[in-house]
Amino acid sequence: MGLTLTEKILSRASGRKVSPGDVIEANVDLVAFHDLTGYHVIEVIEKVGMKIHRVDNLVIAFDHLVPPPDVRSAEIQKSIREFVKLHKISNFHDGGYGILHQVLIEKYVLPGQFVIAADSHTTTSGALGAFAQGMGASDIAAAVLTGKTWLVVPQPFKIVLDGRLREWVTGKDVALEILRVFKADYFNGMSIEVFVKNGTDFPMDYRATVANMGIEMNADTLMFVPDEETKRFIESERGYTPNIIQPDNDAEYVDEYTVELDKVELLVAAPHSVDNVKSVSEVEGIDVDYVFIGSCTNGRLSDLEIAAKIMKGKKVKTRCIVIPASWKIFVKAMELGYIQTLVEAGCIVTYGTCGPCIGGHFGVTAPGETVVATINRNFIGRMGSPQAKIYLSGPSVAAATAVLGKIAEPGDVI
Ligand SMILES: CC(C)[C@H](C(=O)O)[C@@H](O)C(=O)O
Ligand code: SF4
């Protein structure tokens, strides 16, 4: 019997052949944290007092508290900077460089790696075919000190993406479609391996969105089987061609499901849960106060391109904040004129912060407000007030909504 991608990666990382259900100890290829959880990671490291196992596979990026909204946040960042200096950590990205998950896929992660980070959306790196799992701060501290962690090998589930998406429908709609069908807790204890039938029909930006939302499906990880698109992305971002690893043809999965891409509609997750999925036509016309386009879910170049296409020559009727997920994306979007279009349409544009996604700062919601956001979570209080209502959508619905002031489809605007 052949091996799944999950089994291949975890067998290599643990140095023995593993099977689903095994409790294993494995060597991590990359370990990462950000400012908010980093504070706790460092606290544990300092308490234990051991030396860092390897600085070259440790990545730190500031994103949650960027720019620091209060003295406590500034202090947290200051203490992490001192830690970085003390341990001579070179893979450190201070505020403004990008959201950790975006930085990881732009610069560090490779297909087949075992990656852990102190943030639940670490699954984003599964876009490149890495087994990437979020863990708590103490587990991450232990991995920083020993180079190892432990985990239960998840049950592998196969999802096939077949066909081609309709106009304006993107990776976010595919993630929501999977949540519509399976609901938010189905994949508990599983790893999802996604096979794209025709790789070019499902580009890396879309893969990153779906992998990002793997944790919202409650999967341990969600990986796209590496293919030509994976190679293309790494070549264009980093200038070299990676080796890719794929599951065997006769690998066994607990189950399998095919998403017919041409049947996927424009979807939203209505308040207050990610699996309360509705087609946009069911909620069209609801008045909206505020639109947020950004985050590690949908702050990529293709998201900004779609928003700019829809907003070109128009003015937004809602408040609208746009946050590209990294400096690199911001610069590309500037060169391509997207930032100018969005600013002229009346959006506030900044970069490199989680900001409103977690209701921390930079655009929190007031009681009674209705929000459309391209983020991954809409539970009560996520973006500020517990009395706000959050609809999750892809970039085209968010942009059309900002222009019309009510939930809309791109076709209503263009
Ligand atoms: C703050 C952090 C622990 C959290 C996570 O792990 O996901 C955050 O990034 C989020 O999106 O809710
Ligand atoms: S952008 Fe949002 S989902 Fe992503 S890491 Fe930041 S807070 Fe979490």
UniProtKB/TrEMBL annotation:
Catalysed reactions listed for this entry: (2R,3S)-3-isopropylmalate = (2S)-2-isopropylmalate
Record PANTHER family: HOMOACONITASE, MITOCHONDRIAL, HOMOACONITASE, MITOCHONDRIAL-RELATED
Enzyme Commission designation: 4.2.1.33
Stated name of the protein: 3-isopropylmalate dehydratase large subunit
Needed co-factor(s): [4Fe-4S] cluster
Involved pathway(s): Amino-acid biosynthesis; L-leucine biosynthesis; L-leucine from 3-methyl-2-oxobutanoate: step 2/4
Its biological purpose: Catalyzes the isomerization between 2-isopropylmalate and 3-isopropylmalate, via the formation of 2-isopropylmaleate.
Oligomeric and partner information: Heterodimer of LeuC and LeuD.
Keywords: 4Fe-4S, Amino-acid biosynthesis, Branched-chain amino acid biosynthesis, Iron, Iron-sulfur, Leucine biosynthesis, Lyase, Metal-binding
Residue sites binding [4Fe-4S] cluster per the record: 296, 354, 357
Database matches in NCBIfam families: hacA_fam, IPMI_arch, PRK00402.1
Gene Ontology MF term list: 3-isopropylmalate dehydratase activity; 4 iron, 4 sulfur cluster binding; metal ion binding
Origin superkingdom: Archaea
Pfam families hit by this protein: Aconitase
Alphabetical list of HAMAP family matching this protein: LeuC_type2 (MF_01027)
Cofactor comment: Binds 1 [4Fe-4S] cluster per subunit.
Residues in Aconitase/3-isopropylmalate dehydratase large subunit alpha/beta/alpha domain copies: 20-282
PROSITE patterns in alphabetical order: ACONITASE_1 (PS00450), ACONITASE_2 (PS01244)
Family label: Belongs to the aconitase/IPM isomerase family. LeuC type 2 subfamily.
Biological processes annotated in GO: L-leucine biosynthetic process
